[in-house]
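A.,

Following up on our hallway conversation. Structure tokens first:
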């Protein structure tokens, strides 16, 4: 427990510091987290980052995670779906060269993992770069963290009905409801303290999404780990697991909020 607390405090202080500062250091940290994230997923599948398929996954992750203005400056017209199409074709070439040792299923894993991690972290950066981006990013994170804590403590105290035992045996329906309620409470507090420039309807909508899809993101990560027989996505953060273990909810919630134009 002591190790977990110390790691959590140090990681939180470093992340908060670089997020508040923003600019290039924040962009580089987000890119680094995405690289670590794709490495963690590939490792679950026993794919080396230095293999042909690993390099393709890394390049596709980088092509999706980098800031939009970097894409326009350095990639020119090679943006949008073009990197995805190229990666798809190259990864299929690998299936041929390896004589199907690297299968079509493996190819699908590589492409999906790269897009999941790359776009997920990309939208974390894009949120920070919005007007009022700093409070907006922390507003979303506060709701996600609130939902996570609310689900944990509610589940511990009154949880009886298993939510999805095949994927995560400790999670309960009561805990999930508690997480959603806590997310709403956190969102409403932020609204009434003028922490963010949103209407109450917007705040309630975002709180529901953070409360529901944050937990779905956590369950998705649990499903990955259970399928591949690992306890944690990595061991970078002692007592906490890997980067994906700490950011799985973010990778669901922030892209969805941008897709629904709730952060504009």
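Then the amino acids I'd put at each of the 264 positions:
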């Amino acid at each position: 427990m002591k190790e977990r607390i110390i790691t959590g405090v140090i990681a939180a202080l470093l992340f908060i510091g670089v997020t508040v500062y923003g600019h290039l250091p924040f962009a580089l940290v987000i890119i680094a987290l995405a690289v670590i994230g794709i490495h963690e997923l590939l490792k679950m599948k026993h794919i080396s980052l230095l293999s042909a398929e690993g390099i393709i996954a890394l390049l596709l992750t980088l092509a999706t995670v980098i800031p939009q203005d970097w894409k326009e400056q350095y990639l020119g017209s090679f943006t949008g779906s073009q990197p995805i199409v190229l990666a798809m074709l190259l990864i299929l070439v690998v299936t041929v060269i390896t004589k199907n040792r690297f299968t079509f299923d493996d190819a699908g894993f590589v492409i999906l993992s790269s897009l999941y991690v790359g776009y997920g972290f990309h939208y974390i950066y894009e949120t920070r770069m919005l007007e009022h981006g700093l409070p907006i990013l922390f507003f979303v994170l506060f709701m996600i963290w609130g939902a996570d804590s609310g689900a944990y403590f509610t589940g511990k105290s009154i949880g009886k009905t298993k939510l999805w035992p095949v994927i995560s045996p400790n999670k309960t329906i009561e805990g999930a409801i508690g997480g959603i309620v806590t997310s709403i409470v956190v969102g409403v507090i932020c609204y009434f303290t003028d922490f963010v420039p949103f209407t109450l309807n917007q705040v309630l909508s975002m709180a529901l999404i953070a409360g529901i899809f944050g937990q779905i993101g956590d369950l998705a990560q649990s499903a990955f780990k259970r399928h591949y027989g690992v306890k944690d996505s990595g061991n970078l953060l002692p007592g906490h697991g890997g980067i994906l273990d700490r950011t799985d909810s973010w990778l669901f919630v922030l892209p969805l909020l941008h897709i629904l134009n709730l952060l504009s």
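The CA atoms of residues 2 and 31 lie 29 Å apart. Curious whether your intuition agrees with the design.

B.
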